[in-house]
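Example 253.
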Amino acid sequence: MSRRKKIYEGKAKILYEGPEPGTLVQYFKDDATAFNAEKHAVIEGKGVLNNRLSEFFMQGLTAIGVPNHFIRRLNMREQLIRAVEIIPLEVVVRNIAAGSISKRLGIEEGTQLPRPIVEFYYKDDALGDPLVSEEHIIAFNWATQQDMDDMVALALRVNDFLSGVMLGAGIRLVDFKIEIGRVYEGDFQRLIVADEISPDSCRLWDIKTGAKLDKDVFRQDLGDLADAYTEVASRLGLIPKNGSGSSRPKLVN
Ligand code: UDP
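Predicted structure in complex with uridine-5'-diphosphate:
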């Protein structure tokens, strides 16, 4: 297959031109970055795991009617997605205090929040993705009031879905980040979930032990990141249970 035109390269993924108009190929790299790319490593197998995990979560969302960009997986590292116009915001939903909310508001990590909290961060690496309010978003025209309402509704549906799926796997969904894009259909536009849903962009804690099964393992040097992601994939039934012999991910359909 001849190499496609590269549209964009980010820290963990590459986007290539898709086979049909309105599509893109999303390639998952093994690179892990944290602290605004100050910390970087290549973690063998991470891209394969995230490709499969994101497919699994997006397909689940499709099954319950939450629109998203996923079309189909192409191979171990690539999936076909709908091209969207990304809204320049990171939408974070939090169930339990951790990370930046704990620091900013002095809430002890692990504290259950009174209800899911939706936050918006402006996507700008040079500024370190600052927290922004609805006022900023509307005044600077990053999204409309209607978009805001739609984004909150989408984010909360994703939260309910992911929380339930994780609970079934003995994992607590502490928080996560999604990105949302616009698609145009005739005279109408609508918002759909885009980018990826994977342990790179979630906090996942084992319900029994509290062990971290997400990118904090890399951020905080808590062990092998691929082992943590393999554990998540295995609990969700996406790869054979541990102890099957091979140390690196083997996909099952
Ligand atoms: N997150 C992300 N990308 C970012 C920033 C945050 O995927 O650029 C995710 C992060 O993994 C966590 C949630 O969003 O699941 C909330 O992150 P937080 O604001 O606590 O920031 P952190 O402390 O991780 O920098």
